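REQUEST FORM: STRUCTURE PREDICTION
Request ID: SP-0412
Submitted by: Lab K.M.
Chain count: 1
Length (residues): 268
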Amino acid sequence: MAERSKSGKEVVRAERAATKRSGSEAAEPPDSDWRPTPEAKSQATRFRLIAAGLWALAIAGEIFGIFYVLDQDPVKTWLLILVIVLVGALAMGGSFLWKKANRLDPASRSDTVRFFVQNQLGAIITVAAFLPLIVLIFTNKNMDGRQKAIAGTIAIAVMATATLFGVDLDAPSKEQYASEEADVVAITGENLVFWTKAGDVFHLCEDASAVNLESKDNKIYSGTVADAHAGGKDRLTLQIESEKRQCGFGDAPGSAGGSPAPEPSDAG
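STATUS: Completed
RESULT:
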């Protein structure tokens, strides 16, 4: 019979889920050098290869625009705009997959240069794919002022949109994941968390109210912190104190002498 939460949701174990430890058995300390699961590493590599391919096509589109479209006399404005939109779509597609890969296999904040480049590479590639094209649009001798204004404005707008899409202001790191693992082990005594397909975060136990509300398919998944991130979850819930009470991991600080401070929500 399948394990179920108090609300009746089916609890599904990930293949690499941690096993329950007895009270007398000490919990193993989490590895400070956090590593993704082999499956997550493989998927991240696949996403990065596809992203690189999309970015290569975006650069090829830029080259086509510069050496073919802008070299025509007169320049076909509709074709130039089509190239601009296509380059933007390819750049954004690459950035989307690159960000997904970084959440599966993040960089370390201790390596500052690599951390910045790895997480902002989508924006860097986008600027490289657009800036020369935009400069040559405004300096092209085969276009009149009206053509330059239309094509140039569209190119700048698409570049700005795609660049912002490629920027990651909330980039994950190995240190974040290791810290979450340490917090979970300190609270629960094991590296075991719970999540759903619908939610963006993972939780301390299957009976937490938030994880049950998130479950639209009546299933709750369990596994290690690494498994949760491999499953597409961004972080540990912010409602730690509430879940400690709900899961039976001890009273939250302040519960004996008054109401505890309100907790941040996991909106989104």
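NOTES: Residues 1-18+190-252+260-268 form one domain.
Reviewed by: T.R.
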